[in-house]
Design a protein that fits this description.
This protein is of the alpha+beta class and about 290 residues long. The protein has five helices and eleven strands.
Length: about 290
């Protein structure tokens, strides 16, 4: 007779809550790798660099031509992301949830940049599963922490004994990007299926649907790392919306995702997140004992 599997194990291993954050990493559920099976997509067969656009060239064009009508909607988003990446004093606050099986996982996230120092906190909470990570990016290394004692209000405990220090390359290999890259999704002429622009009272709203494979080539690395998965998930939906002000400063990003995690068969997850972007802030990099009041 095969070994028995508790319902709580099936539920928790079916949840993978991972969302692309600015200046940060993923919010997620730390799950086991029990009974993982091969997914449908071999992400390793794709080259990440092949699906990126030349964003530096885009910004050179924008320096000479700031007319919104000169750009595709998704290009306006990339301009806003690049502008945000150059701001040396910024932060983001993230809230959302993911629904899978019989549980809803609440998501919390904070990212701070102060000069050349970067920080992110990503927390996930439900009655079944709790997870948290913090990353501190310095001049040539990144300190990684796993959290404990995660609570429903978005607080957690982080300790020096749980720290590991890695190189930028090691971190990017495992997590898809360093903290200085604002958004983990690959948004380019090769990954955007459609994008629309709407003028609002205070700026612009851009909505887009992305390719379910090539847009998440970086993202799935983080999903595997934070969830300890043997296999990558398969996406069926990647939809993003961005609010920009009249000067194309990034104000908010919303995400809607649907994907399958292969654990004891197919397990479907639906996630929604809202990320608020703040520029020219005075926030300092939080210490290990500091808690953000989500």
């Amino acid at each position: 007779m095969g070994r028995k599997i508790k319902i709580s194990t099936i539920v928790t291993t079916s949840i993978v809550v991972t969302v692309g954050l600015t200046l940060g990493v993923i919010v997620g559920v730390h799950v086991g790798n029990a009974l993982s099976v091969t997914g449908a997509v071999d992400y390793g067969a794709y080259s990440i660099e092949k699906y990126e656009d030349d964003y530096a060239a885009l910004m050179k064009k924008y320096d000479k031509d700031k007319s919104v009508s000169s750009y595709q909607p998704y290009e306006l988003v990339n301009i806003a992301i690049e502008k945000f990446a150059k701001n040396e004093h910024s932060k983001t606050i993230t809230r959302g949830n993911v629904k899978a099986a019989i549980v809803t996982q609440e998501i919390f996230g904070e990212d701070v940049r102060d000069g050349n120092e970067f920080y992110t906190e990503s927390l996930s909470y439900s009655s079944i599963k709790k997870c948290g990570v913090r990353f501190y990016q310095h001049a040539d290394s990144i300190d990684e922490y796993r959290g404990t004692n995660i609570k429903s209000n978005g607080s957690a405990t982080f300790q020096e004994k749980n720290k590991s220090t890695v190189s930028f390359k090691e971190h990017e290999d495992n997590w898809g990007k360093t903290l200085s890259r604002p958004v983990i999704y690959i948004i380019s002429s090769k990954t955007v299926l459609d994008s629309t622009l709407e003028e609002t009272s205070d700026g612009y709203k851009v909505t887009m649907n992305l390719d379910k494979v090539t847009s998440v080539l970086r993202y799935v690395k983080q999903m595997v790392s934070i969830s300890n998965l043997d296999r990558t998930p398969d996406f069926s939906k990647v939809s993003l919306s961005f609010n920009l002000d009249k000067d194309l400063n990034l104000k908010q990003m919303s995400t809607e995702e649907e994907y399958v995690v292969y654990v004891v068969g197919k397990n479907e997850s639906k996630g929604k997140l809202t990320v608020d972007f703040y520029q020219d802030v005075t926030d300092k990099i939080p210490g290990l004992d500091d808690q953000y009041p989500y």
